[in-house]
Specification:
The chain is about 60% helix and about 15% strand. It has about 170 residues and is of the alpha+beta class. The chain has 2 domains: about 90 residues, Class I aminoacyl-tRNA synthetases (RS) (hypothetical protein PF0899 fold, 2-Layer Sandwich), CATH 3.30.2320.20; about 70 residues, Orthogonal Bundle (Helix Hairpins), CATH 1.10.287.
């Protein structure tokens, strides 16, 4: 296999490393967005790399730039509690400590409020989909749009519940 070179990453597994970089940056950005951490606020990222420390170090510089990460810490076998996390294939579990970045109590209150709104909206969408007259008489594309909306709301609810669970254990 030909060796490739991209953004300072070299070797036969460059594509895999770029994929890991994209997934890690996306995970950090999603956690920021979900918890209301401003995109420009530098955060520390802690990664339980499960023996993949060399892979983390290979993308560390780019991750710092692309995700506004101030520091990347490699963890041993310990998993911090009370820190939002995401699994990044090939790297391990990525944690974003909130201390210093946001007020955890304020974030918890906002997420609880958001969860209430999502649950109310989901209840309405599910009620609409539960009505035979809507499902049978509405155009197929309108019914499908409502199903997609309900699925998105279920996913959002699960994400909010996950983050709230972590924040409550902090």
């Amino acid at each position: 296999m030909a060796r490739s070179r991209c953004f300072g990453l070299t070797g036969p597994d460059t594509e895999a490393r770029i994929g890991e970089l994209i997934e890690a940056v996306t995970a950090v950005r999603n956690i920021r967005s979900e918890l209301g951490i401003a995109p420009g606020t530098p955060v520390t990222v802690r990664i339980a790399a499960d023996g993949q420390g060399d892979r983390v170090r290979a993308i560390e510089g780019l991750m710092k730039t692309l995700a506004k990460v101030s520091d990347v810490e490699l963890l041993g076998t310990e998993r911090p509690s009370g820190e939002p996390s995401a699994h990044v294939a090939g790297l391990g579990e990525l944690f974003v400590p909130l201390r210093g970045a946001v007020d955890a109590g304020a974030v918890r209150e906002r997420l609880e409020k958001d969860l209430g709104k999502v649950e109310k909206e989901l209840k309405g969408a599910e009620a609409k989909l539960g009505r035979p007259d809507f499902v049978d008489k509405a155009p197929a594309d309108v019914v499908e749009k409502e199903r997609v909306k309900a699925a998105g709301l279920r996913e959002r609810r699960a994400t909010l519940e996950k983050h709230l669970s972590v924040l409550r254990s902090a």
